[in-house]
Amino acid sequence: MRFAIHLNYCYTSESLKLAKQIGCTDVIGHGPPAPSIGIEDTGTEVWAVADLVKMKRQADDHGLRLEIFEHCPPIDKIMLNLEGREEQLENFCRSVENVAEAGIHTINASSAEWVTWAAVATTSEDSIRGGATSRGLDYELIKHMPLSELGKVGEGRTWENLVYLVEGVVPTLESAGLRLAFHPCDPPITPTQGFARPLISTETFNRLLNIVPTTDTIGLNFCQGCFAEMGEDIPTAIRYFGERGKIFFAHFRDVKGAVPRFTEVMHDDGPTDMFKAMQTYYDVGFEGPMRPIHGANLEGEAGWKMAKVFAIGYMRGLAESVEKTC
Predict the structure, then answer these.
(1) What is the largest CA-CA distance in the chain?
(2) Residue among 96, 1, 106, 109 at smallest CA distance from 47
């Protein structure tokens, strides 16, 4: 099993050395810019090959694989059907070609691009084990939020825009040899502020995958926490998408509760059978990588970092247990 931490834009030697020291094989990054290694924001929507190669080489130099970007070039005009979306799709496809040329095989269409995410992802900092705090959500606190500046955007329009993106980029993905993963909308609630959010269940992901059913280039950033928020059984969901080869990479986390009220918890302290979840990844032949996500705020200035270190250790222990009991 391959384990990773998320670099965001911080491609520093300190971050990469830590990843290697705690047993990661991979890192998952963000595309340009990356000021920590001298890649500045140029204001263009097209990611440059030279920048991408520099980012990948930084990981390679520390004995780590960088094969996934957990976001993508801008898609806001595409997903909101704004003026200039045709040009944005062309720029997106040029970036796809450049990312593939740099040796990176997967990018992620984050739900953070789909309006209102930041406003509804968290409504509280809940107390969990030992007084640590973690992300919580209570739908009662957000369901009456005012409309965004876009007004009402219904399900039909949202899906038309998603189809436009997928159908428009698949030919380039296939010719370049790149894959596009989709993260669930977090939380899996629709609508929020009048905006219909498309990817909120197994059924909606099936609808996504059937936009171009013949392609191998569209799949999931399988977030266990989001599927738990949906009320799904996690091992069952892993098996369902994993047997179809649609889990491109994974977020390993858990929550207590489900929509409309849930709290993210420590990886070993939730209701999901995490050993069975890890075992199912092995059963379906998932080849990773997977990473912990979010994490609790533990005591001390570096508490957020310790939570990720704890999570990687727990995940490695689960994997070793699965391997020794197979």
Answers:
(1) 56
(2) 96
pLDDT of residue 118: 46
Residue 115 reports pLDDT greater than 70: no
For the chain, the structural domain boundaries read 4-325
Distance between CA atoms of 52 and 80, rounded to whole angstroms? 27
Q: What is the mean pLDDT of residues 241-252?
A: 98
In terms of Cβ atoms closer than 10 Å to its own Cβ (0-12, 13-18, 19+), residue 21 is exposed
Q: What is the enclosing helix (H) or strand (E) of 181?
A: strand 179-182
DSSP 40: -
Residue with tokens 């919580």: 136
Give yes or no for a contact between 52 and 97, defined as CB atoms under 8 angstroms apart.
no
User: What pLDDT does residue 122 have?
Assistant: 62
> Residues of the chain with pLDDT > 70: what percent?
96
Backbone angles phi, psi at 66, to 5 degrees: -115, 100
Q: pTM surpassing 0.90?
A: yes
Dihedrals phi, psi of 225, to nearest 5 degrees: -60, -45
Query: 4-325: CATH homologous superfamily?
Result: Divalent-metal-dependent TIM barrel enzymes (3.20.20.150)
- pLDDT(310) > 90: yes
Tokens of 321: 């247990």
Phi, psi of 9 (to 5 degrees): -100, 10
Three-class SS of residue 138? Answer: strand
Determine the average pLDDT of the residues in 125-140: 89
Measured CA to CA, the distance from residue 80 to residue 92 in angstroms comes to 15
Distance between CA atoms of 98 and 282, rounded to whole angstroms? 32
Instruction: Examine the pLDDT at 218 and tell me if it is beyond 80.
Output: yes
Tokens of 293: 């996500």
Give the angle subtended at the CA of 160 by the CAs of 115 and 203, to the nearest 5°.
85
In whole angstroms, what is the distance from residue 32 CA to residue 48 CA? 8
Q: What is the mean pLDDT of residues 66-82?
A: 92
